[in-house]
Amino acid sequence: MKLTQKQENFTLNLFQGMSQREAYVQAGYSDKGLPNAIDVHASELAKNSKVIVRLSQLREKAESDKIMTVKERKERLSEISRGRLTDYQESGMDGGWINIGPESPNTAALSEIVSTTKYDENGASPTLISRVKLHNPVTAIAELNKMEKVYNDGTIVNVGVIVNRKAEELTDEELVSIIEDRSSRRITQEKESQN
Hints:
Arc Repressor Mutant, subunit A, 6 strands, alpha+beta, two-stranded antiparallel ribbon, 49% helix, flat
């Protein structure tokens, strides 16, 4: 099910966004006919099953290259949760400064960097003031936990067989009743097992 070189070129041209007519002519097919005839031939070629399959493959590959894998998302979220302001600060005898470069760790954690220059009352002695804002690491950790299914959104308490309710929705009396009921059942079961 191999395409000819012209068919491959036509498919690549379509994938790049050309019209069928333009893709057809650019692929090397004859442009000597009437525009309507070229359109008919280009349309027929676009309906060719081999061209359709190849175009689908190209689109799938392009999509998969653009979408982060689960591993990449986890790595990015981990980078955000590990970021610390001290990763980007340096200080010395002459003061402190922000230093962010390609070798800086956890740069995905950076949400915003704003720098302003302040001058003294005479308009001299410029001082660069930088502010660094990080993404919320707790949010990143929560997303990682959701991806790993580390926790649920709430604790479910089974009351009898009929009702499922979250513990936070129960009154103190209902919680005490559940505890007492379970305690009495356990005592009854222990007595039965001894007999």
